Amino acid sequence: MIAKKWGLCSHTLLIKWLKRYPIDPELLSLGCVIPSNLEMLSEEKDQKKLLEDEILRLKKALEIEKLRSRAFEKLIEITEKEEGISILKKDGAKQ
Fold first, then answer.
1. Confidence at residue 59, expressed as pLDDT on a 0 to 100 scale
2. How far apart are CA 3 and CA 33, in angstroms?
3. What is Dmax (Cα atoms) for the chain?
4. N or C: which end of the chain has fewer CB within 10 A?
5. Rounded to an integer, what is the distance from CA 81 to the centroid of its chain?
6. Do the domain assignments include residue 54?
7. Is 95 helix (H, G, I), strand (E, B) or coil?
8. Could you tell me the pTM of the whole model?
9. Which residue range(s) make up the domain with 42?
10. How far apart are CA 26 and CA 31, in angstroms?
């Protein structure tokens, strides 16, 4: 956010400056509010890991629902064949 605010070409430049010119948070008036550079990177990695875990969970849930949907389709198909009735509405139903 700081790199964007000040028009820096990349955030890596800001990280290099922070390494070269470390800031003592105790000297800053907002020291207790501003997280250190390492804390911010750690939080970003944690957030990325959480999002990746959520994506995996949702992919698994989608696969399970696809299988479930296919099972219902097969059940309807078998029931329609054995009972000789139409369970699903066909195109052109009454308006």
1. 94
2. 18
3. 83
4. C
5. 43
6. yes
7. coil
8. 0.46
9. 37-84
10. 6
